[in-house]
Amino acid sequence: MVQATNWDPELYEARHSFVWxxxxxxxxxxxxxxxxRVLDLGCGPxxxxxxxxxxxxxxxxxxxxxxxxxxxxxxxPRLQFVLGDAAAMKFDGEFDAVxxxxxxxxxxxxxxxxxxxxxALKKNGRLVAELGGKGNIEHIERALESVLARYIGELPxxxxxxxxIGAYTALLEEQGLEVRMAxxxxxxxxxxxxxxxxxxLRQFSWYYFEALPNRERExxxxxxxxxxxxxxxxxxxxxxxxxxxxxxxxxx
Length: 252
Ligand code: BEZ
What we know:
Blueprint: H1 9-15, H2 18-30, E1 37-41, H3 47-54, E2 58-63, H4 66-75, E3 80-83, E4 95-101, H5 110-120, E5 121-132, H6 138-151, H7 165-174, E6 177-191, H8 196-204, H9 206-209, H10 214-232, E7 233-234, E8 237-251
Parallel strand pairs: 1-2, 1-4, 2-3, 4-5
Antiparallel strand pairs: 5-8, 6-8, 7-8
Helix pairs in contact: 2-3, 6-10
This protein binds benzoic acid.
């Protein structure tokens, strides 16, 4: 499988902790009960996995990044973390709930992932998930693509997808999940400090720049930042134009 991006757990924890901090809200929607078995899909460095465990559930964290799983094991040595690809996971009727925060949009084989989630759940088990939804980071993607088009003819393939409610719920239903709640909403997200956008681009979009010769990457990065300035730099600093798709579904 192509790695979605080269995850840098240190940069992620130092600068992008908002990813899991926003997820705490989603945790309330999951409402894990003592003794339940929960799979945290795309667990990253394990911060929310630990919070699920804090509520008394037995939790397994799964992520396809070896760096993230290494960091999760170091952060929370008492928890179980598995390195693996969600589309290929073989869990069978084992979980009361599958939880996923800000991860499903990296899993491009969405149909296979939805099928694997359905099989992993017990009957009446639930999926509680949040991912980037239709229109997510539209300004950022437009700037990346327009700057890169000036440097090279062919753009790298996108490594994320941001589905609409209709597209994603249809896919879940196809895989035997009954959608009980779906919500698409804007969540402009503050990026810390003057270098907020630069850090974000280096962490999450660097694969675009890797399509360029080394000597051109920094100049292209500056151009993307300049292009984003009018739309995403306000008085309070940089904002990422996030839109979230929140889903609750059940295996019936
Ligand atoms: C997101 O959480 O929406 C996201 C994060 C990194 C890259 C693309 C999208």
